[in-house]
Amino acid sequence: MEDLDFLENATASFADIEANGDPVMPLPFDRPKVGRAVRVDAPVFNPVTKDVLKVSNIIYEHHTDGRPPDRAYWVGRKLKKCIFGVVKECTILRFRNDPETPWEVTEHKAAGKIMSWQKIKDLQHIEDPQKEVAAMQFVSRAGTHPHVMGVLDVLQDEEYLLIFMPFCTSGDLFGFVQQAGRFPEPMARYWFKQILEGLSHLQRMGVCHRDMSLENILVDEYTRSVVIDLGMCLRVPFDSGDGEVRDVTGGGLRRLIKPLIPCGKPNYISPEILASDVPFDGFAVDLWASGVILFIMLVGLPPWEFARPEDPRFKMVSKGKLARMLESWKRPVSSLAADLLQKMLMEDPRQRLSLSEVKDHPWVVNDFASESITYQEPANGDEGWRG
């Protein structure tokens, strides 16, 4: 898609999208491309120590045309559990074309998500990891993006589906907020700009994430954030100019999406998704969740449990009193930060800022701390809301 088309969609308001045509269903992703996994034990050469080690649990793709493997993954320690299996740290190996020591250690790591086909079958009514694979391959068609998680290899054997992804060293952004209590404004701005770059890439690819949250943003080397977990994302429909609905490559303006069953983490779900009875703009719901992310980074607490009218905090924000609410919490933010949060968290999506408007907001653009407040640690127990 040309930058001009991206700019048109990044600046488009809800009213523009609403006037563009009737709501439609999201488009399906293409079937994922999955290679055949081979698992072996083999000697591995370490170019630093010059040692040769006998290593077990090496996984690589078998090419049916006889080509040698591009790389292999030496599966190591468990990083965490996931619904269908585990995520493990892997060392990437280089093929040496030496029959005695066919593999060589590299300095690169990967995260390997190892999922049981049996669990996928049993739990497919909850979530389909094959859709996540297809989405990750879709958003990384032109190569991995620095702020959106892509894939290195997707493999399978009789027992497992295996996704190998770039490795992030420093946990998730929620952990950073939890440890700090809340961020000073310059620090929040640093991370928020990177989140916006991730959103920009997703919008360029015509994808709505639908589950943006601090927990779904990993940190690498303490300096770079990466949006992860595309399991709930949608392929946004666009006009093609000839009356047909296509994906983002059609070059037209996006369309509203028909109501769907609500999904995502409670704190981050937009009002229209919670209501699930009105059409929604996929890009607007991601920007709403990003507003909640910024709120939590600056305040140290979520704005509400659910964005529903019966919640008094949501009612206060929806009436334009976000700054007053934070004053009453004794957690004020600068006037510019409050203005940005208020305009991102408008109940009516017609009144919310577009991606371009958020990126052009003075709080985002100006790298100054003159309006930032004195940073204080929160009282004990304030982080129990993570749940």
UniProtKB/TrEMBL annotation:
InterPro entries: Prot_kinase_dom, Tyr_kinase_AS. Transmembrane segments: none annotated. One of its GO terms (molecular function) is protein serine/threonine kinase activity. Keywords: ATP-binding, Kinase, Nucleotide-binding, Serine/threonine-protein kinase, Transferase. It holds the Pfam family Pkinase. The lineage of its organism: Eukaryota, Sar, Stramenopiles, Ochrophyta, Bacillariophyta. It comes from the Eukaryota. It comes from Nitzschia inconspicua. One of its GO terms (cellular component) is nucleus. This is Protein kinase domain containing protein. Residues 73-364 form the Protein kinase domain.
